[in-house]
Backbone:
């Protein structure tokens, strides 16, 4: 696997013409570490609008430099749908849409959503996936980790502390949420820490010195030693405890910047090195941006170190600065990104090769990637939101809203319609059978309590156009509900 | 479509010979598997894969050892091919031996069912982070079907298309009777899909720029979705297309046929040949029950009776339809079974030696590859690895073992895990 990753990184390195990655911190010592104040209180001086302006200035400048005409602004209705999907993981309800329509104060709506329990729920789920992936392992207690994230997000704990806890945590997976990160990655915590929190790919260095990569096998081994004291005790099914043994001798580990721990609490030292470094702030800010825009700035967040040297370096640094200025809290950064003009622009596609084409087509861009036939692909400009398919969790949460409201009060109890009876068809890995697919397609639906126009308005968070309104009159609500749930306008963030 | 020296030469030669079916070198769409097969210059257009789930005993099928201690009570019978014997449970296949090529020395080290099945279907040991496409998906990708699914799997969940794209995933039919009933019900709900189509077209129009059409927009939207939910719209459309194709009739036929006979495997194989005749590229039928740790002889005699009837009927049916020369038949299973008979009169897992049978699609019949010793304990001549087996099968549709595929995560990979084509079964003589 390492070598495959290697080839991947190699392609990236060649693509971006980078002989040295992350050169800014080469050989730098402690001076390179930003030490945040130990307890950054909520900073009243943080100005969402100033930071949003600075970001927009950079985005507009990049557009002007490339001669790109930026897209028009989205409507209030679409903006509401976007922030609802991004913050709460679901479409807005009819009530929310009506309230917003009456007083469309976008920033106030963002703040209200941030205070909603659904925000902490949804973001905890997203961060759990970032930390340990989607796979379920016997050693990891996802639920416990997610609950812990939810608490941190609800309190808006500075993210550097949250991540430091993930790296340094000890305890029992089933009870101590953060311990699950190292428990999950026990075989090799170094690579995920580099990738997730620092935007650095250390995969190649695991086995050899990659010719074009900055990090050598020695760097990797020096990092790996931070985890030498880790000991995992297994006392039965799902009962895993993570503790640090006392290390009396052996080589002292060394962080990528050259810093060495001064105490024997190696993991705690590492947690400080990581979260105080500049790449940490950049990578975390880039991850948040990615969440909203559906694509990263020049690279995906796993390779932020590459992007941070590219043409949009200043933009990434500004995002990171905003994140640090907000006390490493997620909410000020989220408010800033939601307040940018860039976020509120329409999705627009252009053929690849056009001057404003994204320079990093995702590798999944074409299912026919193996085909040598060059087709014109359609892409979005890097600094503009791209249409993103809902995640299975977003789809389920949204479908619950739609189904819940469609039948509110109007359905007999025996005609219950449950979201789980529409199995997700996209997980081909599980290769559902023809029967399972047909069952979900042939699902008998009771008659919804709402008219077709209302169902349409609820699902798409917008009223139908005039011609759609006429067409809807002839569509039975039952058929419409089925079609809405599977339609692209519903299944996409756009 | 992957280009290598062989396909390139094939097209050049075809063009030089003025072949009617020669297509432009970079044609990306073929109307049918037959067109694709013509273009890449192979005879094989479809594949019937019969998978013996659990690991069939080679002693009770294609490599009997009558009269020795390891052979047990199983008798051997003569086949139509002089000097070749099958187990007595396979009289009809014995009569057809001149159509079959038996590989008696397939060997591997994988003795765990799930892993061995994955290995046999893909040619690679399973690495969770790097999924490999299975035989059916490779066939579907190489010889795409137009309206019907390229790959149907009856009775087995399948392993999927990996990086080849979801259109080459198996359409898994577990229970034809239930499918038939559901399809009948769905015929009445067609209007749902018409509504869905209208909604999707309206949505696509929102994004249409100067030079794009609705189809392109849909493609673009899909490219933005990665492994997210929106794929379902596309899949529903595809399934809907199947409903209007012969597939639904065939499933209904199979449902009716299964009421008339107790041989479920025979019904499934019959349905498979129908699907192949209708234009599906690859059909896999899984036959359960071969994990004979207990009562090996009683159980295999029942299994071979069903197998013999169903497989011989399939061969005769394909011949009668004139499809035999274009259809590659593969018979294989998880692994072989031990020469030693255990105290429960059973045979245990034995990956070191197993059998694979190929036929049709221009495979030379009456051929036996490899030889085991008199007791069936060791390979005396020509071990064939799983990779060799896969290389041989894929070679029949012009995929070279070292042909490069591009994975979705950016890493190139070869078609098989090493392996060389069995020379007698090579498509082009060297």
Residues:
């Amino acid at each position: 696997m390492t070598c495959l990753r290697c080839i991947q990184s190699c392609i990236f390195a060649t693509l971006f013409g980078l002989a040295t990655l992350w050169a800014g911190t080469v050989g730098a010592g402690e001076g390179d570490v930003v030490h945040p104040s130990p307890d950054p209180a909520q900073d009243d001086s943080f100005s969402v609008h100033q930071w949003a302006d600075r970001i927009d200035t950079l985005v507009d400048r990049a557009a002007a430099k490339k001669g790109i005409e930026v897209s028009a602004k989205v409507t209030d209705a679409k903006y509401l749908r976007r922030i609802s999907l991004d913050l709460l993981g679901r479409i807005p309800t009819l009530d929310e849409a009506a309230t917003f329509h009456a007083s469309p104060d976008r920033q106030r709506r963002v703040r209200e959503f941030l205070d909603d329990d659904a925000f902490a729920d949804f973001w905890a789920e997203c961060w759990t996936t970032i930390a340990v992936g989607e796979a379920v392992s016997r050693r990891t207690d996802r639920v416990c980790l997610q609950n812990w994230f939810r608490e941190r997000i609800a309190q808006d704990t500075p993210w550097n502390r949250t991540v430091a806890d993930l790296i340094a945590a000890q305890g029992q997976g089933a009870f101590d949420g953060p311990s699950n990160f190292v428990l999950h990655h026990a075989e090799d915590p170094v690579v995920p820490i580099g990738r997730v929190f620092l935007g650095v790919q250390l995969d190649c260095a695991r086995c050899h010195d990659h010719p074009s990569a900055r990090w050598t096998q020695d760097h990797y081994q020096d990092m790996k030693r931070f985890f030498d004291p880790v000991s995992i005790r297994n006392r039965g099914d799902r009962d895993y405890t993570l503790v640090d043994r006392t290390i009396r001798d052996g080589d002292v580990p060394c962080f990528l910047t050259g810093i060495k721990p001064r105490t024997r609490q190696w993991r705690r030292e590492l947690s400080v090195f990581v979260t105080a470094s500049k790449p940490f702030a950049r990578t975390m800010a880039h991850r948040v941006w990615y969440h909203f825009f559906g694509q990263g700035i020049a690279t995906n967040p796993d390779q932020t170190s590459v992007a941070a040297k590219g043409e949009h370096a200043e933009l990434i640094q500004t995002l990171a600065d905003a994140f640090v200025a907000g006390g490493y809290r997620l909410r000020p950064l989220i408010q800033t990104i939601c307040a940018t003009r860039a976020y509120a622009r329409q999705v627009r596609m252009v053929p690849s090769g056009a001057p404003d084409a994204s320079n990093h087509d995702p590798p999944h861009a074409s299912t026919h990637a193996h085909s040598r036939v060059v087709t014109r692909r359609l892409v979005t400009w890097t600094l503009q939101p791209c249409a993103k398919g809902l995640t299975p969790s977003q789809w389920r949460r949204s479908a619950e809203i739609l189904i819940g409201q469609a039948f509110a009060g109007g359905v007999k109890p025996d005609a219950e319609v449950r979201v789980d009876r529409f199995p997700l068809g996209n997980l081909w890995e599980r290769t559902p059978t023809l029967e399972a697919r047909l069952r979900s397609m042939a699902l008998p639906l009771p008659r919804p309590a709402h008219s077709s126009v209302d169902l349409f308005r609820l699902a798409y968070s917008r009223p139908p156009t005039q011609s759609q309104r006429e067409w809807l009159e002839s569509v039975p609500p039952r058929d419409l509900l089925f079609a809405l749930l599977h339609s692209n306008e519903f299944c996409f963030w756009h | 479509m992957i280009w290598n020296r062989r396909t390139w030469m094939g097209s050049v030669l075809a063009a030089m010979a003025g072949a009617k079916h020669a297509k432009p070198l970079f044609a990306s769409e073929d109307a049918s598997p037959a067109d694709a097969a013509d273009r890449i210059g192979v005879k094989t257009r479809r594949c019937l894969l019969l998978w013996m789930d659990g690991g069939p005993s080679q002693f009770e099928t294609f490599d009997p050892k009558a009269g020795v201690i390891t052979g047990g009570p199983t008798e051997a019978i003569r086949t139509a091919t002089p000097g070749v014997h099958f187990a007595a449970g396979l009289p009809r296949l014995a009569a057809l031996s001149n159509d079959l090529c038996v590989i008696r020395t397939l060997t591997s080290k994988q003795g765990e069912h799930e892993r061995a099945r994955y290995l046999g279907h893909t040619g690679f040991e399973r690495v969770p982070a790097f999924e490999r496409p299975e035989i059916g998906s490779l066939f579907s990708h190489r010889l795409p079907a137009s309206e019907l699914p390229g790959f149907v799997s009856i009775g087995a969940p399948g392993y999927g298309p990996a990086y080849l794209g979801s259109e080459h995933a198996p359409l898994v039919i577990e229970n034809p009777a239930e499918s038939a009933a559901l399809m009948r019900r769905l015929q009445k709900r067609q209007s749902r899909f018409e509504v869905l189509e209208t909604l999707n077209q309206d949505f696509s129009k929102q994004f249409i720029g100067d030079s794009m059409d609705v189809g392109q927009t849909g493609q673009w939207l899909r490219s933005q979705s990665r492994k997210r939910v929106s794929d379902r719209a596309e899949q529903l459309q595809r399934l809907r297309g199947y409903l209007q194709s012969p597939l639904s009739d065939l499933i209904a036929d199979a449902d009716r046929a299964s009421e008339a006979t107790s041989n479920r495997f025979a019904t499934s194989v019959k349905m498979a040949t129908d699907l192949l005749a209708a234009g599906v590229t690859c059909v896999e039928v899984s036959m359960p029950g071969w994990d004979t740790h207990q009562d090996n002889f009683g159980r295999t005699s029942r299994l071979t009776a069903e197998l013999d009837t169903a497989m011989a009927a399939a061969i005769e049916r394909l011949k009668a339809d004139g499809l035999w020369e274009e259809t590659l038949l593969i018979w294989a299973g998880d692994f072989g079974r031990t020469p030693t008979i255990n105290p429960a009169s059973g045979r245990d897992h034995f990956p070191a030696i197993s059998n694979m049978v190929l036929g049709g699609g221009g495979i030379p019949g009456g051929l036996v590859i490899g030889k085991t010793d008199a007791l069936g304990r060791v390979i005396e001549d020509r071990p064939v690895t799983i990779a060799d087996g896969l290389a041989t099968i894929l070679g029949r549709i012009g995929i070279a073992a070292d042909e490069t595929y591009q994975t979705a995560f950016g890493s190139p990979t070869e078609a098989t895990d090493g392996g060389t084509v069995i020379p007698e079964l090579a498509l082009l003589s060297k």
